[in-house]
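User: Quick one: structure for sequence A, then sequence B.

Assistant: Sequence A:
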Amino acid sequence: MSSPATAAAPVVELHDLGRTFEGAQPVEALRRADLSVMAGDYVSIVGPSGSGKSTLLHLLGLLDRPTKGSYLLDGIDTADLSDAQRTALRGQRIGFVFQSFHLLSHRTVVENVMLAMLYGDTPKRQRHNLAISALERVGLGHRLDFVPTLLSGGERQRVAIARAIVAGPSLLLADEPTGNLDQTTSESIMEVFEELQSEGLTVMVITHDSVVAGRARRTVEMLDGVLSEVGQ
């Protein structure tokens, strides 16, 4: 694995990126995408169902490989990385937040966050303190010993965000993070993302909600596998 680029380099750099799914009738889910996202940027990705947003998310999250083009994450060309190297890079550099919170109901809040470090190189004795710090960053320092079933939807999503950031990623990917929340709670979650972005975290949010998308600094639209920046 190559060494990361300097701080001035983009966190996300896509060049002519494409993904085609083979079959009797091949589907070109992503076509020649070019995108540069700098550290501390906040980008929303919008588009109708079937437009290619999920495909793009899977590529950005190193959950899938492109069939053409290149993807650099923190200056590291991901094209020729082995599966083990991609898994390691994903764990070190990327945090995920989903519409469904994916919390373990029988584990406490702080234990759920600690689980994100289970397969990393963080010493066991440090995991508890790091989890507490992450929960405090999202305003849940007073819920450490609660189980998810005792939390509101907004609080559960905050736990999920804490879990996503606890390992200190450079990129936070959120897929419809407010899809299960009411308008007021969605607003509070957007404020959390904005606070994290103001601290230097790069945030990319996939959403169908125009209000959520409007909170980002930049908006990228997906349509029939084509990516274009709104406002350019």
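Sequence B:
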Amino acid sequence: MLMSAEPIVQVENLHKWFGMLHILKGVSFTVEPKEVLVLIGRSGSGKSTLLRCLNFLEEPSVGTITIAGQSITSGPGIAVDRQKVTALRLSTGMVFQEFNLFPHMTALENVIEGLITVKNIPKNQAIPTGKRYLDKVGLSAKYDVHPIRLSGGQKQRVAIARALAMEPKVMLFDEPTSALDPELIGEVLDVIKQLAMEGTTMLIVTHEMGFAREVSDRVIYIDQGEIVEQGPPEEVFGNPRDERTSKFMEPIMKVQKLK
């Protein structure tokens, strides 16, 4: 990981309410270029909401989000500039739990759809880019295959290729293996590991703790909408400072010792 003076992601005092439910409570952090930041925590702790706020799939209630120099402040009475949201989204690639592929389109057509409709790239120019990214995720034999004929792991790799094809500055992964059968998880994690080795800036929400420990430069533990602890994976997993992190890690470390 190469550190620079300027973070590529900066989150300041982020709050999110759903009605009376206060989901995120003043979250602040930065991400350096080429850094892999993994977000862990119990289900319902606010991890996925945080990720969705970063590209305004969920609009923050309060706070400032800056990605690749594009800054947006949210708060009561502040009208969010939709052009800024569009620009921020172009800097981020999102991979969801569910694959969200268009069933009537082939793998290649799914990958190039954003290039054509969002970036206005002619189809004949988009096709080589789409093929290049399908090759990158190991699907060079699946250009013309529809999602119904793909395994879950292959579908998720198409979704990763689709996000990468837009050439974002930051990749966001929201539990990318949670919808997969156990035997298919590895093929998706291998793609993400390769991206990490290539220096792709990534924020990853995952319950795969072994993977989190291996791939991350830094880990953030979130509990009830607050950052409880953050640091290098060997510290957060091996010697957590906060009691809440320790309790979360205890059963995980027991399982790893058994292995």
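Residues 19 and 61 are 11 Å apart (CA to CA). The mean pLDDT is 93.

User: Thanks, that's what I needed.
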